[in-house]
Amino acid sequence: MSDFIKSIEAELITWRRLFHQYPELGFMEYITTYRLGKELEKLGFTIHLGEEALDHDARLGIPNEADLNEHELLAKAEGVEASWLAKMSGGLTGLVATWDTGRPGDHVAFRFDIDALPITETKDTNHIPAKEGFLSTTEQTMHACGHDGHMTIGLGVATFIATHQSSLKGKFTLLFQPAEEGGRGAKAMTEKGWLDDVDYFYSGHIGIQSLPIGTVAATTEGFLASSKLNVTFTGVSSHAGMHPELGRNALLAAAVTATNLYAIPRHSDGITRINVGKMVAGSGRNIIPSDAYLEIETRGETRQVNDYMLAEATRIIKASADMYDVSYEITPVGITEEMVCSETLIPKITKACQSSDYVKEVLPIAKVSGSEDASFMMNRVQQHGGKATYMLFGTELKYPHHHPSFDFQENVLAVALDTFIKIIEGGSQNE
Amino acid sequence: MSDFIKSIEAELITWRRLFHQYPELGFMEYITTYRLGKELEKLGFTIHLGEEALDHDARLGIPNEADLNEHELLAKAEGVEASWLAKMSGGLTGLVATWDTGRPGDHVAFRFDIDALPITETKDTNHIPAKEGFLSTTEQTMHACGHDGHMTIGLGVATFIATHQSSLKGKFTLLFQPAEEGGRGAKAMTEKGWLDDVDYFYSGHIGIQSLPIGTVAATTEGFLASSKLNVTFTGVSSHAGMHPELGRNALLAAAVTATNLYAIPRHSDGITRINVGKMVAGSGRNIIPSDAYLEIETRGETRQVNDYMLAEATRIIKASADMYDVSYEITPVGITEEMVCSETLIPKITKACQSSDYVKEVLPIAKVSGSEDASFMMNRVQQHGGKATYMLFGTELKYPHHHPSFDFQENVLAVALDTFIKIIEGGSQNE
Amino acid sequence: MSDFIKSIEAELITWRRLFHQYPELGFMEYITTYRLGKELEKLGFTIHLGEEALDHDARLGIPNEADLNEHELLAKAEGVEASWLAKMSGGLTGLVATWDTGRPGDHVAFRFDIDALPITETKDTNHIPAKEGFLSTTEQTMHACGHDGHMTIGLGVATFIATHQSSLKGKFTLLFQPAEEGGRGAKAMTEKGWLDDVDYFYSGHIGIQSLPIGTVAATTEGFLASSKLNVTFTGVSSHAGMHPELGRNALLAAAVTATNLYAIPRHSDGITRINVGKMVAGSGRNIIPSDAYLEIETRGETRQVNDYMLAEATRIIKASADMYDVSYEITPVGITEEMVCSETLIPKITKACQSSDYVKEVLPIAKVSGSEDASFMMNRVQQHGGKATYMLFGTELKYPHHHPSFDFQENVLAVALDTFIKIIEGGSQNE
Amino acid sequence: MSDFIKSIEAELITWRRLFHQYPELGFMEYITTYRLGKELEKLGFTIHLGEEALDHDARLGIPNEADLNEHELLAKAEGVEASWLAKMSGGLTGLVATWDTGRPGDHVAFRFDIDALPITETKDTNHIPAKEGFLSTTEQTMHACGHDGHMTIGLGVATFIATHQSSLKGKFTLLFQPAEEGGRGAKAMTEKGWLDDVDYFYSGHIGIQSLPIGTVAATTEGFLASSKLNVTFTGVSSHAGMHPELGRNALLAAAVTATNLYAIPRHSDGITRINVGKMVAGSGRNIIPSDAYLEIETRGETRQVNDYMLAEATRIIKASADMYDVSYEITPVGITEEMVCSETLIPKITKACQSSDYVKEVLPIAKVSGSEDASFMMNRVQQHGGKATYMLFGTELKYPHHHPSFDFQENVLAVALDTFIKIIEGGSQNE
């Protein structure tokens, strides 16, 4: 079956490099979605776009209208068809591609995230995309987390399904999810019901840990549930020398919030985290500050523990506003859940990969940290009785994710694709 | 007229020393009120006691029931008549003594405060009360602010009025006010209406500044409006190691209150002050503290500025409670207003004192600080068109007020009494 | 061998009730130590007292001199011999009793803690000590944690060793440790070297969890490393109305400390805890507070993590003092380490207990929380290659430990004693 | 003498509008200084530039090198001679122009401030500079405080002196001071000794209060001593989820600084003010913030009181850095002193203005607030026995100072100029 990989290997590289050149931020992946969609359409998949794919109101952290408009115009200029743009307009990006073999069998879902990061890519000539000429064409936007690779693997999986459909059973759902960064898009796809009757769910990440090419982790553990909030405080400015008593000090409300957020009590049920990553307040030295802005993140080992952190944070923010007699607004801009990979998939994946020429070693579990919104999809699958996992695909990492010099070894694409193919084959043949 | 002073001088000393031996805390001046009342009754004054003298609900910082009961029993044992005790029961101490000459003329009021302090008097033999044998008979209670002298002057004024009534005009009201310390009693007398038709109001203090005997200040300036609050926070205790998340931390609510109270903005309309003088919180090292207690004081150059401080403080206390999800209770335990002495009394007093053998020098104004609840009475008089002042009577002070070794020179009593007599005579004769 | 337990059962009850009637706080166990010592002397043990038993300077949280003196006089009055008192004077309580069989074999150590708590025992007649007439004879002191039982078990073990010495091998060290509460005494015994060549160390606790009589846990997990600190801040008082700028506010230093201590960042290497359990600051409402006192506790899943918490706390306390220009003093009053029981003892204990008529079930491990200073001894034993465990002995608990109504079922004494006897026998016979 | 005003009136308007079109920020007034200098040179004044005029190191809040370079290039392009630029290079802007009549008489100094503000001027056509076509030519820079008028008055005074020199006595020093905004330039001129032998010093402001044209205040009171500080905290960033304990949180150091700065105790010697006008901290939501920036201002009724505020603030900043284990840097960027106008100038000015056709009313004193660095010059003059005042020149103000629509009535220029001329004449003739 490695013949298939061989036959598609060059195309994988081409796709990946194309995606790398056109990075788009979350909920603005208009060009990306269009290119994916056209390819999948060509393969014969049924394409679900816009409000069909995503719950409009369950999205978080949607860009402002001006940015959306600008990117839609750009997409139009780049050749995205008007009918496609119409469906995606207003940040309804990403798509779901489905395939029904018509034969009884499992419903298997794969998820690939497609958004890029607000990072300016290095021009350093040691950086492969610079040396080989496929650097990001957009300032301050870069695929610095490997999602260009993830999409590529997704197209590879789709090609395999389309070309081998006669020997496959059951149904396949490929979720090309927007806005993974910040935990903003998965909930909206999940709410649409795509995962409700899925038997097996597979997602995963290139890298995370620096591992040799060919190493694959069947499951991961350690992702925390998390909430991301933006908070604004609005008070009243006043001349600090002339009328200090007339001001309503938003900066102090923000300062008190910050100090007291970190003091949220530890929780005996599990790990907690809290951070105020950014604060901007005030306008001038001699003016009582009337505005303040905070970027906050809570995490918890479980949804319940994170809910506790979020409830405490919310109360503290409100009380800080009351303390300084200012108004406040909390905007949720991201959310993830904890995830527990289905242990029963470990032997299944391990066995399936034995016949792979690309997978050298299957680790049963890899320790990670941080947060992932694939958790929403996994939890939905598991709640309905399905099995789900989040895997790692080893690559050497010279620079960490989210770094201007981030890159991965392109042969990981073949490893990941063959892993998924072997899982599909294993599933179709053995169960 | 100095013959009168001479005739009463020994009695002044006797009275003062008797009062000094039986100090009583605010709203527990049962014995003191009784002794004053019996003396004034003997002189022919009409005596107003209990709810006749004080507005029951306008009192602040009333002692707890157990303390009141104990002191009422003590008063009974000391010989206070049951009918008097019945009227004073529950902390309705102090009295108002009135005299109407039946002749048209001004209504003149004098106010004397009668309460003592929770201080244990020194036994040092250099301390005159120790040397001369009239130390406080009660542990942890002492006339350390000169109110024993004030009452004595009051009895002197009463004696003068009674013995010279035939040559006087108008009406006289002598207010023997309880609970001056902490600003707890004056409002209750004022609310009863005693000051509503007063033309001239005189009060004052022995000492404050260390000045030579014979020096009198006709007016004072600098007393601030103030509010005194006790605050309790009540949360939920929890084992700090096992279940930190189950606690509701009253200590932190109190800590946040303290920090943020001091940060109340300065006010462009005048001086402000804030203090958290006491904090007691928590029970044990490994228990999330479920209770906290604070003693707070705000001050402002004017009532409005103090109202601002109080409103800010109240909001901060509430928000701190909300922040830590604990309940709170604010108990007002004292209040004073700012006072502005009537300038027109300066020449009046200066002139009246010219004929005194005891007053050596009249200062037009003395700078003071701190707070005085006579302010309620003065403001009421002035609001109704009357004139009011708060004077100082010079004495050397070896120790400051509220010190265990505080004492004053007893001949200040004659100076103060003669000042008030000359004012009475001046008023009756010249206007 | 149950004949031995039967023969000593009445004596166990007598001992336990005597100890219960004479509770003594940490480092003031003069009478307790004397009674233990005389009993052990009688049995033929070598007794090590005072500086022989404890490192003088490694003790933490020593009572003040006045309390020590008072309790030494009391002990003298109660019949403690002068020569014993001389050795224990100044809080050098507790003792180490050693027995060498002269035959090659393991060195086995047992540790029993002997101090009581500052709690007033309930007089409720449902409380067995009340009903049966062995209530604490001392107000505000009570064996409310079961150490009266621990000592009793210790005397039982000693009696067994003395009466069965001819059939035993190796050496025995019985540590009767003072001041376990607050983690104050174990380090001082450990520093003296008693554990340095111990092969097996056993300690344990009656209760902790409410378990049926006869249930024994071979090991425990979950005790955190901890540090206990008292902190005083000393500033300068000043009249809050007159000269706020002259004060140096110790209350605010304490408030800032409290808020910021809770904000010490979580640690990725393990659980952390922080608590400010008590704050007392200030003297009067209108005085800038010149003094403040805090009781603080840090915890960490490992010694390293707790060291991190302690280092952070120390820096924050110092900076808070600097911020308010006050001086500070940190007094360490307790310390515990984390403990990891030797897993290899689980089968050993389980097997040994199979022959017991008293032990019904051996749980391999029990989850606990809180902190235990036996950890110092265990870690020392393990560092030198020995094995160590901390066990639980089941009893029904109607009230939690440290409660005025705390009590345990007295037949747990026989269970615990037989457990230790079986371990001794197993050790002597099988290895 | 009004003939002189008439003769120069058109020129005043021309000058003012030119200056208005070319606003320059503090220490970057290269073009402004050059234009002033060329004009004054032409009139015959001796010009002192660069290090002759200013103490290099006493300047505060100097722009960064890049900005200085850019503006120097701009000035060159605008035609400023290289020899002038060389002297001013690096922010040594402003100049001192002197005139010695050669005749014995007073040394009279006038000070005019020349810098603009970082404000973008409104293009609203109701705004006279827009309607009449003399808007600022530079984005984000505007004469929104009237300094364009002040300089114009200065040129008027210079023209008067030059054209009337034969009838004048004594010496004249005109200080065209850079960087008044933020209190950055006056100290540097003062340190150079220009004021050391001045007998009379006059400065003043157009507007401040909205007063009718023709109204002049002879003196002002209420300017506070002040200090302006920028503070940066530098810590260590870390992933907030993975390694919170490795971060050194600069945002929290800044938050704690802010809260505690406002809590600096009030001072019994006079008014205090404190403000943190701006805070910017952190880089991303999930990163422990490693950097923070604060803009702070302290004020005090006297230099001593402001010194107290500054000392307290400095200690709090340092302690906050220590508390969060971050480094800090305090950059003083501005300073003013309190000023007390010489009362004896009130009658002098009042009398001088009686003969003016432009001055309608002389107010003896006007209440102001805020801060002014002319205070350094005035205090220096007064310390050496001279007299000094800071005046107001009435104009209607539709918008407050520092507002994008700020403007003044241009006929105030004639009023102010005639006031100074009358003072010069009065001084030369009458004393």
Q: What's the short version?
A:
Chain A has 431 residues and is α/β, with parallel strands linked by helices. Helices cover 35% and strands 22% of the residues of chain A.
Q: Top keywords for this entry?
A:
Aminobenzoyl-glutamate utilization protein A (chains A, B, C, D), alpha/beta, Peptidase_M20/M20A_hydrolases (chains A, B, C, D), homotetramer, 22% strand, Alpha-Beta Plaits, Aminopeptidase, globular, para-aminobenzoyl-glutamate hydrolase activity (chains A, B, C, D), 431 residues, eight-stranded mixed sheet, four-stranded antiparallel sheet
Top-tier CATH class of the largest domain in chain A: Alpha Beta
Uncertain segments of chain A: none
Task: Provide the β-strand percentage band of chain A.
Answer: 15-25%
Q: How many strands in all of chain A?
A: 14
Shape of chain A: globular
Helix content of chain A: 25-40%
Organism (chains A, B, C, D): Oceanobacillus polygoni
Pfam families (chains A, B, C, D): M20_dimer, Peptidase_M20
Binding site for Mn(2+) (chains A, B, C, D): 145, 147, 181, 205, 402
Keywords (chains A, B, C, D): Manganese, Metal-binding
What does it look like?
The structure is a homotetramer of 431-residue chains. The first copy, chain A, has 431 residues and is α/β, with parallel strands linked by helices. In chain A, α1 packs across α12 (412-430), α2 (30-43) runs parallel beside α6 (147-163) and α8 runs antiparallel to α9 (303-323). The longest helix of chain A is centred in the C-terminal third of the chain and has 21 residues, at 303-323. In chain A, the strands form 3 sheets. In chain A, strands 1-2-4-3-5-14-6-12 form an 8-stranded mixed β-sheet. In chain A, strands 9-10-8-11 form a 4-stranded antiparallel β-sheet. In chain A, strands 7-13 form a two-stranded parallel ribbon. The first copy, chain A, is built from 12 helices and 14 strands. Chain A folds into 2 domains: 2-221 and 339-430, 3-Layer(aba) Sandwich (Aminopeptidase); 225-336, Alpha-Beta Plaits, CATH 3.30.70. Chain B binds chain C through residues 182, 224, 226, 228, 239-242, 244, 249, 251-252, 254-256, 258-259, 262, 273-289, 292, 295-297, 299, 369-371, and chain C through 182, 224, 226, 228, 239-242, 244, 249, 251-252, 254-256, 258-259, 262, 273-289, 292, 295-297, 299, 369-371.
